[in-house]
Specification:
CATH architecture of the largest domain: 2-Layer Sandwich
CATH topology of the largest domain: Heat Shock Protein 90
Order of helices and strands: HEEHHHHEEEHHEHEEHEEHEE
Bound molecules: adenosine-5'-triphosphate, magnesium ion
Strand content: 15-25%
Number of strands: 12
Shape: elongated
Low-confidence stretches: none
Radius of gyration: 36 Å
Structural class: alpha+beta
Distance between the termini: 91 Å
Strand order of the largest sheet: 2-1-5-4-3
Helix content: 40-55%
Length: about 375
């Protein structure tokens, strides 16, 4: 190929390239000289900014910036950055010929000759006003939704609490009234037992609420899990239907944990009762404990932990419900069957114990709730 042929091929490529740039209407593509004066102007630039080529060529590109940006020296600053690093990007308001503003996404790239000399800068600007407005609307909607959800949770909280306490008070007042009017000592005794029972349930409810709100100080101690579980075994046995099997498995050299033992008993009962409600009359509930080391993979926890799992082969948890199960008063159980406080207590306990709780569930197959509890670390020997 002769040199005239080659240059005509280049000329053809150049003109095609020019046509291409000219045809683009969604982007303002133009060139600046190294001092920031406009050298070329495409159809997109005219469409977006309103000026025709003959009106802007030779003008300084600060023409497109707002007065505020010019006062702050933004055009010069962008130019300087592009020239020193090869590229500068910016997002912000720009001004059209008619004075209206649009939100621009702009890139400024240095163009060099083969010998390295700076020939000019390529400026590509896009009008993303619509996109920005859509994003802002979405943010506003999200904020509103979040607020609404918070209010709903709060409404549920107060509504649920009022309702449950009301039930208990009805029992207490009714029984006390009956007892006052009764002359049968045995009946009076039974009624007083109702009063006591309702009162204790109320206390339990406030305890659970307080530990969710993290206002209750836990009594940390060294707890042996097998012993603790033994102490509630009888209670669990009474609460499970006959055809529900409870399997218990411990690691051989299971470490002790450092938690509030009384609270942990409540937590285990809550988890096991949830499992019982999920399996129905026939099923398997498995309680498993093993040592584990965490390196930040769970809630950024580090160190020695005991992983305590309560799993069941019950109906599982619907994906729509799953994000809400730890909320206080969230329940899917029938009226009077659940208060929705069980898992909020579990959650509060796990956090306060410097541990964590995780759930995994498959609808139709079952659920596994996993607690991570800090292993007991003996205090450093101070006798030396
Ligand atoms: N093992 C499980 N299997 C299936 N669903 C579960 C399980 N554990 C919890 N859930 C779901 O999470 C919801 C919230 O549980 P949570 O223990 O907080 O309240 P509850 O059991 O409904 O009432 P409460 O424990 O206060 O009597 C339950 O209503 C249920 O829908
Ligand atoms: Mg429960």
């Amino acid at each position: 190929m002769g040199s005239t042929e080659r240059s005509s091929v280049h000329a053809l490529q150049d003109s095609r390239y020019e046509q291409l740039v000219q045809a683009v209407v969604d982007y303002a593509i133009y060139m600046l000289d190294p001092d920031g004066y406009v050298v070329s102007w495409n159809a997109g630039a005219q469409r977006i900014k309103g000026w025709r080529a003959e009106e802007v060529i030779g003008k300084h590109f600060s023409l497109f910036f707002t007065d505020e940006d010019c006062a702050e020296g933004k055009p010069a600053w962008l130019l300087e950055r592009a020239l020193s690093t090869g590229v500068a990007q910016d997002e912000g308001w720009r001004v059209r010929k008619d004075g209206t503003r649009f939100w621009a996404l702009a890139a400024l790239d240095v163009i060099r000759a083969p010998d390295g000399e700076v020939i000019g800068l390529a400026k590509v600007t896009r009008d993303i006003t619509d996109r920005r407005e859509a994003a802002q609307q979405l943010d506003a909607m999200r904020a509103q939704l979040f607020q609404a959800q918070k209010l709903e949770a709060l409404g549920q909280l107060t509504g649920g609490m009022a309702h449950d306490f009301n039930n208990l008070l009805t029992i207490i007042i009714g029984s006390a009234r009956l007892a006052l009017n009764s002359h049968d000592p045995q009946r009076v005794r039974r009624l007083l037992e109702h009063v006591l029972d309702a009162g204790e349930r109320g206390t339990q409810m406030t305890q659970q609420l307080l530990s969710f709100a993290r206002q209750k100080a836990l009594k940390f101690g060294r707890i042996q899990l097998p012993t603790l579980i033994d102490s509630i075994r009888l209670l669990i046995g009474q609460a499970l239907p006959r055809a529900v099997e409870l399997q218990i498995r411990f690691d051989e050299s299971l470490q002790d944990v450092e938690v509030d033992g009384g609270q942990l008993q409540m937590v285990l009962l809550n988890l096991i009762f949830n499992a019982r409600d999920a399996v129905g009359e026939v099923g398997v509930i498995c309680l498993q404990a093993s040592n584990c080391r965490l390196d930040g993979e769970i809630d950024d926890l580090h160190g020695d932990f005991v992983r305590l799992e309560v799993s069941d082969n019950g109906h599982g948890i619907d994906a729509k419900v799953l994000p809400r199960i730890f909320e206080p008063f969230f329940t899917t159980k029938a009226f009077g069957k659940g208060t929705g406080l069980g898992l909020s207590q579990v959650y509060g306990f796990a956090r306060q114990s410097n541990g964590a709780v995780r759930v995994s569930s498959t609808v139709g197959q079952g659920t596994c709730m996993t607690l991570y509890l800090p292993a007991f670390a003996p205090a450093p020997d101070s006798t030396h």
